[in-house]
TrEMBL record:
Belongs to the BCCT transporter (TC 2.A.15) family. Coiled coil: none annotated. Its main location: membrane. This is BCCT family transporter. The keyword Cell membrane applies. It comes from the Bacteria. The chain crosses the membrane at residues 34-53, 73-91, 112-132, 216-240, 260-281, 293-317, 347-365, 377-404, 424-450, 477-498, 504-525.
Length: 537
């Protein structure tokens, strides 16, 4: 079925087509009221936060604590449901359903597809937390495990248990759960758009439940919530990326690590993202994603080759087993004795991934036509989890090896001093060619920053343009600029804690929508022809 046929099918079967409720104003082609409500609210947020910076920081900090402690059960339960649902789809007969219909072929090769998945999904986060988190959880083990260091001295019998818990907890946050969140949103949107002929907008995913009511206020609320979640989730990642890139520049070249420098850096990288926006999806995001993939693989291979190679290779298998063994207890929230870990890390992560899910999910949906549901889930859930295990084992495992086998405390000190943005560079400093690899790390963070901003503005623009994917470029420019501005005001209004609070605040209500999306996805799949019936159709 061609794109034209798809659009016609949408009009005939559903009374819905991309941009049908749009208005033309000042050369823009925007959905009414989603664009105006979203834009006005976000502009107001930027202005108010800049005027009342100190008060905004206090409010955001308090909001984070309240949400993570009051609704921890919701985040934990939701993420578990998403994982179980995805695993069910792999073994279910509906796994043979093809996104786009029986005759659809993939738009991108596996290499291009994987590159865009990782660049959009986790790029900045892996760079920021890959070294930091295993070391942090080693110093402060979860699940009631005794700390390995008491009064500044190692306690031999506690060290190995703390190391294992640290690696398992880190992989838990970057494994099946976050990718299941992305997969649910992406699959639901892909089916709605390419199989049902509905506009590429968040409201379309709920058509199996609400029917044509998604065209009214129900759909307006869903799309507006998706814009807020995407913008704040993305701003959190951009803030992390800016902090880490500037810390690296400070380490290598003495660039001042000040708020003013962070603002300037965000502005410069937002400018680079604007150039990518103008270039378009294939020339912009796809090309940058492939560059990032090459650089990331080179850096990964370098650390494996010149770091503790045997420890990394054996660690990949042992850490995979540790992760699977620890998965049930880490996923449970009842009777936990490590509230600080669960609230400070796990519930924040699940809220962060959920707030990212409209952005990453819609982006993955857009580039995944032609894949079967089973192929899609395996590639979006299982393979990225294995890559995350390898990444965390390589970078975090190397830092732990440096501490335990070589006595190097540089990375551990970043945890003690709470300068998390320096962790990667302190680990690389102990390996050969540190100045070159650290520079590559900075470039990776910056290019991940650009691709995230570019693809994020593309997704937000699609939502606020009523599902149109060919809206005027000026609209994507508008959203790219405001992504940078939100990151700036959150940094100024409370630093990394404010960034995390923004992600959690928008992730909470969207978690409820994602649970409803699971139901909608199952209903949509049940209605699709599959297997031999699909081929006959």
């Amino acid at each position: 079925m061609s794109d034209t046929d798809t659009a016609n099918a949408a009009t005939e079967d559903h009374g819905l087509e991309p941009g049908q409720d749009n208005v033309l104003i000042l050369g823009l082609d925007v959905h009414n009221p989603v664009f105006f409500v979203s834009a006005v609210t976000i502009v107001a947020f930027v202005i108010v936060t800049l005027i009342f910076k100190e008060s905004a920081g206090a409010v955001l900090g308090g909001l984070r604590t309240w949400l993570t402690t009051t609704f921890d059960w919701l985040f934990m339960l939701s993420a578990n449901i998403f994982v179980l649902f995805c695993l069910l789809l792999i073994v279910s007969p509906v796994g043979s359903v093809r996104i786009g219909g029986a005759d659809a072929v993939p738009d991108y090769s596996y290499s291009g597809w994987f590159a865009m998945l990782f660049a959009a999904g986790m790029g900045i986060g892996l760079m920021f937390f890959g070294v930091l988190e295993p070391m942090f959880h080693f110093n402060n083990p979860p699940l009631g495990i005794a700390p390995p260091i008491v009064n500044g001295e190692f306690v031999a019998e506690n060290v190995e248990a703390a190391r294992q818990a640290g690696m398992a907890a880190t992989i838990f946050h970057w494994g099946l759960h976050p990718w299941a969140i992305y997969a649910v949103v992406a699959l639901s949107l892909a089916l709605a758009t390419y199989n049902k002929g509905l506009p590429l907008s968040m409201r379309s995913a709920f058509y199996p439940i609400f029917g044509e009511r998604v065209r009214g206020w129900v759909g307006h609320v869903i799309d507006t919530m998706a814009v807020f979640a995407t913008l704040f989730g993305l701003a959190t990642s951009l803030g992390f990326g800016a902090s880490q890139a500037l810390a690296g520049l400070n380490e290598l070249y003495g660039v001042p690590n000040t708020d003013t420098a962070k603002v300037v850096l965000i502005m410069l990288i937002t400018g680079a993202a604007l150039l990518s926006v103008v270039a378009g999806l294939d020339a912009g995001v796809k090309r940058l994603s492939e560059i990032n993939m090459v650089l990331a693989v080179l850096l990964l291979a370098f650390v494996i080759a010149l770091g503790p190679t045997l420890a990394i290779i054996s660690g990949f298998f042992s850490n995979s087993w540790l992760y699977m063994k620890s998965l049930p207890v880490l996923s449970n929230w009842i009777g936990r004795e490590d509230d600080a870990f669960m609230h400070g890390w796990t519930t924040f992560y699940w809220a962060w991934w959920i707030s990212w899910s409209p952005f990453v999910g819609m982006f993955i949906a857009r580039v995944s036509r032609g894949r079967t549901v089973r192929e899609f889930i395996i590639c979006v859930l299982i393979i990225p989890t294995l890559v995350s295990i390898l990444w965390m084992t390589t970078f975090g495992g190397t830092a732990l090896y440096q501490l335990l086998a070589e006595g190097y405390t540089g990375v551990q000190q970043t945890v003690v001093d709470y300068v998390p943005e320096l962790s990667l560079f302190r680990m690389l400093a102990e390996l050969p060619l540190a100045s070159i690899t650290s520079l590559i790390g900075i470039v990776l963070v910056i290019v991940f920053f650009v691709t995230s901003s570019d693809s994020g503005s593309l997704v937000i623009d699609t939502i606020t343009a009523g599902g149109k994917i060919d809206a005027p470029v000026a609209q994507r420019v508008f959203w790219a600029i405001f992504e940078g501005l939100v990151a700036i005001v959150l940094l100024l209004g409370g630093g990394l804690a404010a960034l995390q609070a923004g992600a959690i605040a928008t992730g909470f209500p969207f978690a409820l929508l994602l649970l409803l999306m699971v139901v909608a996805t199952w209903l949509a799949l049940r209605a699709e022809p599959r297997g031999a019936a699909s081929a006959a159709a």
